[in-house]
Amino acid sequence: MRRCRGCGTIIRFIRSTQGRQIPVNTKPEAPDGKKMLVFADGVVAREHVRLKQGFISHFASCSQGRALQAEGEGLTYGHSRKL
Questions:
Q1: Is 49 in a helix, a strand, or coil?
Q2: CA-CA-CA-CA torsion sign (5, 48, 53, 61)
Q3: pLDDT digits (tens, 9 = 90+) for 32-41
Q4: Is the pTM of this model over 0.85?
Q5: pLDDT at 62 exceeding the cut of 50
């Protein structure tokens, strides 16, 4: 696990099905059909056929996320571990 450069929150990374590293919050959440979640197998969706819990992208909750994205920095650190 790592700390976000923008807000200092502990985050983890999930590799998407396209191979990109997605920073996510560490607390898993149940799908509610409204918010997009990142699931452990890299699927990004509102719901998952097999998995009961997913993670919120840290970009959605970080107080500095938009600023880091606008600068082209992102929140990734060049290191990922598929969950």
A1: coil
A2: positive
A3: 888 889 999 9
A4: no
A5: yes
